[in-house]
Design a protein that fits this description.
With 252 residues, this protein is of the alpha/beta class. Helices cover 43% and strands 20% of the residues. It has ten helices and twelve strands. The radius of gyration is 17 Å and the shape is globular.
């Protein structure tokens, strides 16, 4: 089977995190057009942005600790499913034949071989599987299964040739991410990532810190990992195709 590309559409790209429940349809459509034009076999993950994160934060749901079920779980999942529907509709309008699926049953409750076969069958049929951060049930309670963690799980199952993180910035910077006057790191090693100081911000799942940790793990599998702006569609397209782009590459 042809190589697989794994892409994460960050919540800060597909939504405006300063405005609850604000969806950037034009941005998702533009990225969808590039995905369709690439003719790559792409599995997509998207973040929660201004849909899932504000609700999760209100009810104290995180990816790091278990919580009791109830209203918070229900409302957070409702927000994420609503966002997933918007994302898939925008992608379909741009020419991407999507197949949305919830992550927990496939990635946690089944074995790797079953997940690999299921996903590759979808890809062979010309579909692009699309999943998202979700609230998952465990014996000890509920917690968020973050989109970045899902990226790592998918990478272990599919061993993609490339993994692209679409961010609201051009890549990884020296110093704190918000200090954009700092130089963009065109390449970064695992040892450099462990020393970078980044803010968690208001992200219920660990923000940039978790992305860097996950990127290092995925790169260790032999997968090419890149960070690129989701607002620069041409650069996103280059990263998706494995071409030289303006952003940050993770050195294996």
């Amino acid at each position: 089977m042809a190589p697989v590309t794994l892409a994460k559409l960050g919540g800060s790209v597909i939504t405006d995190k300063t405005k609850p429940f604000s969806f950037r349809a034009e941005v998702v459509s533009a990225l969808g057009e590039e995905i369709a034009a690439s003719h790559e076999r792409v599995v997509l993950v998207h973040g929660g942005g201004s849909f899932g994160h504000p609700v999760a934060k209100e009810y104290g749901l995180t990816s790091g600790a278990y919580s009791r079920g109830g209203e918070g779980v229900s409302k957070t999942r409702d927000a994420m499913y609503a966002l997933n529907q918007l994302v898939c509709r925008a992608l379909m309008g741009a020419g991407v034949e999507t197949y949305p699926f919830a992550p927990f049953d496939l990635l946690v409750s089944s074995d790797g071989e079953h997940a690999r076969s299921w996903l590759r069958n979808l890809l062979s049929s010309g579909l692009s599987p699309v999943t998202f951060g979700d609230v998952s049930s465990y014996p000890r309670g509920f917690r968020i299964l973050s989109g970045d963690t899902i990226m790592h799980e998918l990478a272990k199952v599919l061993r993609p040739v490339r993994c692209v993180f679409a961010l609201d910035v051009d890549g990884v910077y020296r110093g704190r991410e918000k200090e954009k006057a700092g130089n963009l790191l065109r390449t970064i090693s695992a040892s450099q990532m462990s020393k970078l100081k980044v803010d968690l911000g208001d992200d219920a799942t660990g923000g940039m810190k978790l992305k860097l940790q996950v990127a290092g793990k995925i790169a260790s599998l032999g997968t090419s990992v890149s960070f690129v702006s989701g607002f620069r569609r041409a650069e996103f397209a280059k990263a998706l195709r494995g071409l030289d782009f303006y952003g940050t590459m993770v050195a294996v």
